[in-house]
Amino acid sequence: MGEDTCLIPKCEGLTPLEQALSSPNFHYYEHMRALMCSYLPKEAVALIDRTFFVADFAHREQKRASGEPYIIHPIAVATVIVQMHLDVESVQAALLHDVVEDTFITSDMLEQEFGPTVNEIVDGVTKLDKLRFHDYKEAQMENFRKMILAMTKDIRVILIKLADRTHNMRTLGALRPDKRVRIAKETLDVFVPIANRLGISDIRAELEELCMASIYPMRYRVLKAAVTRARNNRKEVVSSIQEAIKARLKEAKIEGRVLGREKRIFSIYKKMVHKELQFREIMDVYGFRIILKDVDTCYRVLGQMHNLFKPRPNGFKDYIAIPKLNGYQSLHTSLIGPHGVPIEIQIRTELMDQMAARGVAAHWAYKENGSKAVSTASQKNAQDWIKNLIDLQQSAGSSLEFVEDVKTDLFPDSIFVFTPDGMIYNLPKGATPVDFAYALHTDIGNHCIGARVNHHAFPLSRSLISGQTVEIITSPTASPNAIWLSTVVTSRARSSIRQYLKGLRSQECQLIGRRLLQNALRSQKLDNLSEETIQSILVNFKEPDLNALYSDIAMGNILTVAVAKFLDPNTHNHHELPIKGTGGLPFIFAQCCMPIPGDEIIAHIAQGRGIVIHTKNCKNLRQSDLGPGKSLNVSWNYTITANMDFKTGLQIEIENRQGIVSEISNAIDLASSRIESINSDLKDEKTFRIELVIAVRDRLHLASVIKHLRKVPNILSIHRRK
Ligand code: MN
Question: What is the pLDDT of residues 542-554, one digit of tens each?
Answer without folding.
Answer: 888 888 888 888 7
